[in-house]
């Protein structure tokens, strides 16, 4: 990770610790050397971060004005909280954890008025529902392929349990109320298709990057599917 990202991550780690934590523990958690950690602590302290450390005890981030408060209105705060809680309900374990971390970061830098909206929101997400069908393949496999523009070979079964093998260019994951889907270009159909993740029986990496830019391919899919500004669409049939 970049130096700036590492420094911000270190601050976030310290912010989440209620007691002093040793340099060795921090270095291990951040996957850096203790020498690098000492240098980062010194740099953050020089910038004004209220980090206190004692030999043999460890480091702790004391309360104090270091980062300016995030100026959000009550409505903006509740919109963010509602969205993150919806993600916690509908997302997989990775997104649920990311939503919790994001909420903790936002909470740490909200001004007092927005803090009240965070603690006692006037809007709540609906019931979590009956849960999604079980997936044979973890969603993180698709997420990694999307980020790296990696082609995938999938074994797929349609609504009638008819099997097929596809080579796809994964573009995005969709979280619908009852199912999760992957938006992709299908080489077999030579067209954009959506595949229910619970019907993907197996995945194999092709070791090949698909051509073009994912953002351009996804934009074309949006246009062809006539997806609205809120990202709503109706999945196609395979």
Automatic annotation (TrEMBL):
PANTHER family: PROTEIN PAFB, PTHR34580
Domain Helix-turn-helix type: 6-59
Organism: Pseudomonas fungipugnans
Full protein name: YafY family protein
Alphabetized SUPFAM superfamilies for the sequence: Winged helix' DNA-binding domain (SSF46785)
Record-annotated WYL domain positions: 139-203
């Amino acid at each position: 990770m970049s130096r700036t990202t590492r420094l911000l991550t270190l601050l976030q780690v310290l912010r989440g610790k209620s007691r002093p934590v040793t340099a060795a523990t921090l270095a291990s958690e951040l996957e850096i050397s203790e020498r690098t950690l000492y240098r980062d602590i010194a740099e953050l302290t020089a910038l004004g971060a209220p980090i206190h450390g004692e030999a043999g005890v460890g480091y702790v981030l004391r309360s104090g004005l270091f980062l300016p408060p995030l100026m959000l209105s009550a409505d903006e705060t509740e919109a963010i909280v509602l969205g993150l809680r919806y993600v916690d309900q509908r997302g997989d374990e990775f997104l649920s954890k990311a939503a919790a971390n994001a909420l903790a970061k936002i909470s740490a830098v909200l001004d007092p008025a927005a803090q009240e909206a965070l603690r006692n929101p006037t809007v709540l997400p609906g019931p979590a529902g009956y849960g999604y069908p079980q997936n044979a393949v973890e969603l993180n496999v698709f997420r990694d392929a999307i980020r790296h523009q990696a082609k995938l070979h999938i074994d797929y079964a349609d609504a009638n349990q008819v099997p097929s093998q596809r080579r796809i260019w994964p573009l995005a994951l969709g979280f619908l109320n009852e199912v999760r889907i992957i938006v992709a270009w299908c080489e077999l159909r030579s067209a954009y298709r959506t595949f229910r993740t619970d019907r993907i029986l197996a995945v194999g990496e092709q070791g090949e990057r698909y051509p073009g830019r994912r953002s351009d391919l996804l934009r074309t899919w949006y246009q062809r599917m006539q997806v609205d500004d809120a990202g709503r669409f109706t999945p196609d049939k395979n």
